[in-house]
Design a protein that fits this description.
This protein has 269 residues and is of the alpha/beta class. It contains five helices and ten strands, in the order H-E-H-E-E-E-E-H-E-H-E-E-E-E-H. Strand 2 and strand 3 form a beta hairpin. Helix 1 packs parallel to helix 5 and helix 4 runs parallel beside helix 5. The longest helix is centred in the last third of the chain and has 22 residues.
Length: 269
């Protein structure tokens, strides 16, 4: 069972839907009319009051040291609705689906859906996390297997083989010198790679293989996924997770429009 970048959400469907819309957009067939056709939306998952991330990317003052994700979830629990903040259009769209966005609260996402213009509401058909520039520009990665006893030990070699086959990144041994860290573990990541002393000391039951793409400087997880295949299929789960990451990375790259060529200047007389 693959959880992609958010447990329980149909990432495969999201990728298929978004990739289809990218193709249709290129052909001018991704409709923009009321209730017609699917569109691609980019932005940040926030609450309908838009008090957590702030319009235009300016963060509001968050009480009690809350993160944008914690702030957004708390506002929704108090009666607000999940919404998508599009900073370019300076618009906040309500989301018809109020379950899936919780896993993406406070994060930049790409959504495929149908816009109900009168209600300013998006019917969500697919949603994936949008990668920051650090991921898009990365050239080197380090593979770290955190608390990897027994079957989990297969993750390191499987990851190296898949990355070598992919060919996008150079795998280097020192995580401190890498652009990204690919962290594999049998436990969910706690966000403490940089701050903790030594490896994860939690008990390990090798049922689920977790993968997190980390920023080596901050320890922040820039992408995460998991597969529940048991201890006998850690290598397969590892390769599948890298494939999921690769598909989403390719998707975002394909959705970025190339800059328009500069206007031709008249030749000097």
């Amino acid at each position: 069972m693959s959880h992609g970048s958010a447990p329980g959400f149909k990432i495969g469907r999201a990728i298929t839907g978004i990739a289809a819309c990218v193709l249709l957009s290129a052909l001018g067939l991704c409709a923009q009319d009321d209730h017609q056709g699917e569109q691609m939306f980019r932005g940040k998952i926030t609450d309908s009051s838009n008090t957590c991330p702030g319009l235009g990317g300016q963060a509001a003052i968050l009480d009690r040291g809350e993160t944008p994700a914690q702030c957004t979830i708390a506002k929704v629990k108090k009666g607000a609705k999940y919404a998508l903040l599009d900073p370019d259009a300076k618009t906040v769209y309500l989301l018809e689906d109020q379950k899936a966005p919780e896993a993406f609260a406070g994060q930049d996402v790409i959504i495929i859906g149908t816009l109900d213009k009168p209600k300013n509401t998006i019917h969500v058909d697919g949603m994936v996390r949008s990668f920051p520039a650090k991921v898009m520009k990365a050239k080197t990665v380090a593979i770290v297997c955190d608390a990897c006893p027994r079957g989990m030990a297969a993750a390191r070699l499987a990851a190296f083989e898949r990355l070598a086959l992919w060919g996008r990144f150079n795998v280097i041994p020192d995580p401190r010198k890498a652009d990204l860290i690919f962290l594999f573990s049998a436990n969910p990541y706690l966000g403490d790679y940089v701050t903790r002393d030594g490896p994860d000391k939690r008990p390990v039951a090798v049922d689920i293989t977790y993968m997190d793409v980390l920023d080596p400087t901050t320890g922040a997880s820039l992408w995460s996924g998991s597969q529940e295949l048991g201890s006998w299929f850690v290598a397969r789960a590892t390769k599948d997770l890298i494939d999921d990451f690769r598909e989403q990375l390719a998707l975002q790259e394909s959705s970025v429009e190339p800059p328009s060529p500069p206007d031709k200047q008249p030749a000097p007389q």
